[in-house]
Amino acid sequence: MSHGSVARTLLPCYSSRMSDPKAELRRRSLARRDLVTQHEAHEAAASIAARGLALVNRIAGEAALDAPIVSVYWPIRSELNTRPLIDALAAEGFRVTLPVMHKVRQPLAFRAFAPGDDLVKGPFGLSEPAEDSPAYDPDIVFSPLAAFDRRGFRLGYGGGIYDATLSALRAKKPVVAIGVAYSCQEADHVPVEPHDQRLDFMMTEQETLQFSAFDAGVKTRSDAAF
To answer: Looking at CB atoms within 10 Å, which of 122, 143, 213, 218 has the fewest?
Structure first.
């Protein structure tokens, strides 16, 4: 899969806005992510698969969702690999979707996916389910990101896509947003704008953070609780 078009579309800040605090934080965080070794990446993917499955089961139980639809991103570049998580969710019987990108700063669509299904290259160079795959609105969204902080805010790749997506989905029904990243992508403070959507959970290879929906505090629970 070619990622050049994705980088040009989603990371416009790199070349033209390096004085922008968001752009500088994004650059530093992604540079750290690129240093993750193959062994560390493999271990992180396995950890996220096991703990992510447990978290989805917990959310489904607490929300009384009989068959929640779960969206998981298909990893590109040095993103934490979620393919083992997709396999684990499918094996447990959860309905999995992959995001489909149509335009920058516009909400994503979501199409059904099962391990073994063929993927096609979308208009922005991403691997996506074919157009004839059924479309669904997910109940749980695993989101990639460039950086995050312990208030529950994420910094994306500059396209505003997941903020627009979560805003649109949450206008229809309750949707749980789970960020996924390496611990090295944590920031002290992510710059926040009014349109930014807050995460409900944040998962790294080291821990799972839960963010209160009712105040600005952060609740951190051990993974044993999940």
So the answer is: 213
